[in-house]
UniProtKB/TrEMBL annotation:
PANTHER family: ALPHA-AMYLASE FAMILY MEMBER (PTHR10357), MALTODEXTRIN GLUCOSIDASE (PTHR10357:SF210)
Entry keyword Lipid biosynthesis: no
UniProtKB keywords: Glycosidase, Hydrolase
Pfam families in the cross-refs: Alpha-amylase (PF00128)
Domain Glycosyl hydrolase family 13 catalytic: 14-373
InterPro entries tied to this protein: GH (IPR017853), GH13_cat_dom (IPR006047), Glyco_hydro_b (IPR013780), O16G_dom_2 (IPR045857)
Molecular function GO labels: hydrolase activity, acting on glycosyl bonds
CDD domains: AmyAc_CMD
GO biological process, one term: carbohydrate metabolic process
Listed name of the protein: Glycoside hydrolase family 13 protein
């Protein structure tokens, strides 16, 4: 299969549009709340597409090369996973001209943009479901959904029983993708926005459309317009079925995040961590491994800062490993400044544009890691192999041609001094540099001696 060439070099930044930046107060809803208000399932804080355009300089300065936007289509909710009109930008985010301006600005700065596609379910306000509610069994759209009985009872409390809905939420009726008209509609949506200039789709719960033929058609149509479009599936588990030339280029690689958080919270030791992340490299073809989307958090998870109890050393170590591991590192907006938040909706807080609220030196650290990943192809494309693992220390190498980089992690509360065998990398007498602080170390008897503070790491080359 052909994976888009650019993904393995990408640095993604995920934006929840209502909470990143308010660039046009004129499109704020009348009930907009103050920026930074406690996030709820229903409140709006005014973020929009113009806000993203205005803050592109911030993202470029950080080193970001690709944006992933949560849903931007017309919807009755702030998260917009219940789409009412797949062809219309939600007016609270702007209009089609704003969208076109964003795509142009992104591309003119050498960046890419992918958008969220929610094709398993829609909102009750979607035209076909609204017709079904109005006309019942006489609706021409009754076969667009999975109807068990009439009347549909779409607005009372309780689970959906008269029709299939995502997790039985009445507000999220599930499409019948076996219906050729539904397939045609959804595939046209996919085509429309690729033709509008987006560089790919992130697909929401695609495993719930358990239909290989649908996804093969989706891929074919998207790639017919843009052969370099990135097709990313939200699959939470290890499942190779979804990665091939009939499905997706990569997946949201949550298993890496899970292993990392388990190690940083003491649930597994360094050797167990190494075993987990190395086994994941064997689960998929190598080109798809490099096209995996590597998150440390998302709109669906607790914030990194929250999960690690605000421990900046652990947070920085998490980023260090993320940028050293194969795949496309993805920053969830605000994680680079230490934005906090429990599970959703709390993880969808407004970005603070006051640098006084940014935690420690976290942003410069992420900026440095991005620069290092960009300047060292081995970190993006190189072979990955273990050098050392014990209960507290994990060290690996990335190697591409003559470029060799060592990453060492102290996954413990103790200061650790240890010897790493490096005869597969360097010769005795060579000097190697720690790119994170520019200190030099010598290779003696095929080893490098490292002294690492608790929850810290090195990147040597």
């Amino acid at each position: 299969m052909t994976v888009p060439y650019w993904v393995q070099d990408a640095i993604f930044y995920q934006i929840f549009p209502d909470r990143f930046a308010n660039g046009d107060p004129g499109n704020d809803p009348p009930n907009v709340e103050e920026w930074g208000s406690k996030p709820t399932l229903w409140n709006y804080q005014g973020g929009d597409l113009r806000g993203i355009i205005q803050k592109l300089d911030y993202l470029l300065d950080l080193g970001v090369t690709a944006l992933y936007l949560n849903p931007i289509f017309l919807s009755p909710s702030n998260h917009r996973y219940n789409t009412s009109d797949y062809y219309k930008i939600d007016p609270k985010l702007g209009n089609r001209a704003d969208f076109d301006a964003l795509v142009d600005a992104v591309h003119s700065n050498g960046m890419r943009i992918i958008i969220d596609g929610v094709f398993n379910h829609c909102s009750r306000g979607f035209f076909a479901f609204a017709d079904l509610l109005e006309n019942g069994m006489h609706s021409p759209y009754k076969n667009w959904f999975h109807v068990n009985d009439f009347p549909l009872d779409a607005y009372t409390q309780g689970d959906a029983e008269k029709y299939a809905a995502w997790w039985n939420f009445k507000s999220l009726p599930k499409f019948n993708t076996d219906n050729p008209q539904v397939r045609e509609y959804l595939l046209d949506v996919a085509l429309y926005w690729i033709e509008a200039g987006v560089d790919g789709w992130r697909l929401d719960v695609p495993n719930e459309i358990d239909d290989d033929a649908f996804w093969a058609s989706f891929r074919q149509i998207v790639r017919s317009v843009n052969p370099d479009a990135y097709i990313l599936g939200e699959i939470w588990e290890v499942d190779p079925r979804w990665v091939d030339d009939q499905h997706f280029d990569g997946l949201m690689h949550y298993p890496v995040r899970n292993a990392l958080l388990e190690s940083l919270t003491g649930q597994i030791n360094a050797t167990q961590f190494g075993d987990k992340v190395e086994s994941l490299l064997q689960a998929y073809p190598s080109e798809n491994i490099r096209a995996m989307y590597l998150p440390l958090g998302s709109h669906d998870t607790e914030r990194l800062h929250f999960k690690l109890n605000g421990n900046l050393d652990k947070i920085k170590l998490a980023f260090l490993f993320q940028f050293a591991y194969p795949g496309a590192p993805a920053i969830y907006y605000g994680d680079e400044i230490g934005l906090d938040g429990d599970k959703d909706p709390d993880c969808r807080r407004a970005f603070s544009w006051d640098p006084n609220n940014w935690k420690g030196d976290l942003r410069p650290w992420v900026q440095q890691l991005i620069a290092l990943r960009k300047s060292h192809p081995a970190l993006r494309r190189g072979e990955y192999f273990r050098l050392l693992a014990d209960e507290k220390v994990y060290a690996i190498a990335r190697k591409l041609g003559n470029e060799k980089i060592l990453i060492g992690l102290n996954l413990s509360d103790d200061i650790k001094t240890f010897l790493i065998p490096v005869d597969a990398l360097w010769e005795d007498g060579q000097e190697v540099k720690n790119y994170l602080n520019h200190e030099s170390l010598g290779v003696i008897n095929g080893q490098v001696e490292l002294k690492l503070l608790p929850w810290s790491g090195v990147l040597l080359g």
